Amino acid sequence: MNSVIRVEGLNKSFGGKQVLFNMGLAVQPGEMVALIGASGSGKSTLLRHLSGLACGDKHGSSSISVMGRSVQSGGQLNGQVRRLRADIGYIFQQFNLVGRLSVLRNVLLGCLGRMPRWRGSLGMFTPEEKQLAMASLERVGLADYAHRRASTLSGGQQQRVAIARALTQRAEIILADEPIASLDPESARKVMDILADINEKDGKTVVVTLHQVDYAARYCKRVVALKSGHIHFDGSVDALDGVFLNDLYGGDLDTSLVLASHTARLPARPSMSLIAA
Ligand SMILES: Nc1ncnc2c1ncn2[C@@H]1O[C@H](COP(=O)(O)OP(=O)(O)OP(=O)(O)O)[C@@H](O)[C@H]1O
Q1: Mutate to test the pocket of ligand 1, among 14, 94, 228 (most ligand atoms within 8 A of CB)
Q2: What is the pLDDT at residue 253?
Q3: Domains and CATH numbers, the chain
């Protein structure tokens, strides 16, 4: 099967300090992959490279392609990378909404990559685009909030608006960088449920960086673990036992709590109809 994301030989340095080392990664269409690792291990940096928000070191024969199209090669961004980004939905830890705009307007911003610039700059959205935006809000359980100012929503609700924006974008791939890091457990579960639902029902490929190993274990079959800028492990979530995590996090993590919570603290995933505002 052709990989939907392929990374080969990626190195990245900041000011002479190398933070990614000869990375290679292949993600198949429809996978939901967790990127885990200690703080500073390189998760966000790797994710940013996948969507062309950052570019690898110039030396070497590195390459990144998404959906068969080059994002960067040999440390040079593809000139068409903006067009490619229309197929990649990016979810940020801090949501990246425009707080003074309505929820619906924020979701409609997802259409910008696929419409003529002049129409986008005038904010002229078609009835079909508005319909799609409303359907996306419905999907994340926030249709009733469409006309509220985005800044008045809770963090968890704002993150769900950001996911609705990615749905409106009709992104084939969702890259989520610590999407639940600043959320309470209840909101975090709702956000992860929605990402999993989009993965399962729509077949979208999801790559999500997570600090919380219990959520990685609960929601993703495949885990890629980074350690000091290297891919330390790439395989089944079943490998996440105490010994593995102690090795990965160097004792920074309370693994007994994490692994206990995997089964005990997280309730079964509810059906999407139960996800309420
Ligand atoms: N723009 C930058 N300039 C300089 N150094 C950077 C920059 N971005 C990241 N780094 C460094 O690269 C390394 C990897 O950072 P990165 O944010 O990718 O790690 P992470 O695993 O996502 O960490 P966290 O879980 O804390 O978000 C760190 O040492 C970080 O300080």
Answers
A1: 14
A2: 63
A3: 1-87+173-270 (3.40.50.300), 97-171 (no CATH)
